[in-house]
Amino acid sequence: MRRGWRRGLSLSVAAAALIAVGAGGAIWWEGRADASSATTTRTQLVAASSGTVKQTVSASGTLSPKNTSTATFGSSGTVTDVDVAVGDKVTKGETLATIDDDDLQDAVDLAEASVTAAEDQVDSATAGTSAAASAQAQLTSAEQSLTQAEQALAGATLKAPLSGIVSSVGYAVGDTTGSGSSGTSGGSGGSGGTGGTGGTGSSNAGGNGSSSSDSSSGITIVDTSSWVVDATVSSSDLAQLKKGLQATITGTGSQSSVFGTVSSIGVVASSTTSGAAQFPVTIAVTGNPAGLHAGTSVTVAITTKQLSGVLTVPTLAVTTTNGRTTVTVSKDGKQTVTPITIGGVYGAQTVVTKGLSSGDEVVVTYRTFAPGAGTGGTGTRRTGEGGFGGFGGGFGGQGGTGGLQRSGTGGAGGFGGNGTGEGGFGGNG
Fold first, then answer.
1. Mean per-residue pLDDT for 381-388?
2. CATH for 73-99+157-174, options being 3.40.50.2000, 3.30.300.10, 2.60.120.1060, 2.40.50.100
3. Based on C-alpha coordinates, what's the Rg of the chain?
4. Mean pLDDT, to the nearest integer, of 13-30?
5. Where in the sequence is the signal peptide annotated (predicted)?
6. What is the SS3 assignment for 16?
7. Which residues contact 135 (CB under 8 A, 6 or more apart)?
8. Residue-wise over 343-372: b if at least 16 C-beta within 10 A, else e?
């Protein structure tokens, strides 16, 4: 039981005083836990050196292919073949699926016959007469009907609008399709393309592009040769950003990074987080790195300022007191506090513009918390039968002198029984 008290109990000085009053008002606490002894201080010499420092803005977002297209049939009919599956690689123009085209072929044959008949009427009509004008009008109409019939026939074969990977297939053999519509909306990364024959719709991502085609009844292809990150930044960071800034992109849980550049910056807030407005930013990934996957959550460090060839020291080595900035220089075993002029703080590194030279060794002091390394305070008996033992510093520590005793001599830290008690509040850390 005594061991459990040492491990689990942590009370403030005020709480100890309150306990004393509860015991009958006969005991007053006087003492101090040595909190400073719960830390370990160590020093290291680090040479000032010339290097590169960066100032960055952090953002988070999602990795996605720059170009995505959902292809739908441009004609109505029954699906007879589906030639691809999710994950297949396809090239632009490759056949993805077909519908029954017998009726469509018949319509083309009929339209061709109409054109032939209209041409014969034009040839037989006397030039300049009303009959000739009528025959020419009929030929023009027949040719338009043939063009439409040929387009409908072409729409029976669904072809890949771009090269890439099939990400979804919404058709199965036996499905009945409607006439597809084409058209897209472009996102912040660029303007959307337009659909061609066969009801193909494409979306140029880089933003929030989306196709008007029904992806549930189409075949979607993603172009994995180019990627973008759709990210957001807070309003406080927005003013630092501009197109063309370099960025480092790291996937969640990944140890490797890829690079990119800011391609667009939104001016209308897309969301709010904890009351702060978030603005959309698109980063175009440089090249086509291997191992990228659509939908991956990423963090982005956008470099807003970079200095090369500057003299730096660890920021922990720098002290500023009353407007005077100094470092401690160690030379030949002697330490000297040296005033310096700094050119900026960049995270763990500080740029020094005056007061040091490359190779000068500065003292870096590290303080780390050391659980259980504290020393117990001292309890003082004022009145009554015995004072509290002091609290152990840190997580425990050796109990102080004195104890709440009923008879006999004062215990060594804690609620002593008869004789001498150990542990309690000031137990071994």
1. 41
2. 2.40.50.100
3. 40
4. 35
5. none
6. helix
7. 118, 121, 122, 124, 125
8. eeebeebbbbeebbeeebbbbbeeeeeeee
d(CA 269, CA 70): 28
How far apart are the C-alpha atoms of 398 and 421, rounded to whole Å?
A: 13
**Alpha carbons 354 and 396: distance in angstroms, whole number:** 46
List alpha helices for 209-347, DSSP H. Answer: 235-238
Looking at 12-155, which runs of residues are DSSP E strands?
A: 39-47, 49-71, 77-82, 89-90, 95-99
Helix (H) or strand (E) holding 258: strand 257-265
Residue type, 226: S
Q: What are φ and ψ of residue 219, in 5° steps? A: -120, 120
Q: Residue 34 — very low, low, confident or very high, per pLDDT cuts 50/70/90?
A: very low
Task: Specify the DSSP element, H or E, that contains 3.
Answer: helix 2-8
Cα torsion at 286, 287, 290, 295 (round to 10°)? Answer: 50
Residue 236's nearest CA partner among 267, 283, 276 is 276
Single pTM value for the model: 0.57
Helix, strand and coil in the chain, % to nearest 5:
20, 40, 40
Average pLDDT value for residue range 135-155 = 94
> How far, CA to CA in Å, does 20 sit from each of 15, 109, 266, 384, 401?
9, 107, 63, 11, 16
What is the spatial distance between Cα 273 and Cα 262, in angstroms, rounded to a whole number? 22
Burial class, 195, CB count within 10 angstroms (exposed 0-12 / middle 13-18 / buried 19+): buried
When the candidates are 2.40.30.170, 3.40.50.970, 1.20.1560.10, 3.90.25.10, the CATH number that belongs to 223-306 is 2.40.30.170
What's the pLDDT tens digit per position in 203-242?
A: 444 433 333 334 357 999 999 999 999 999 999 999 999 9
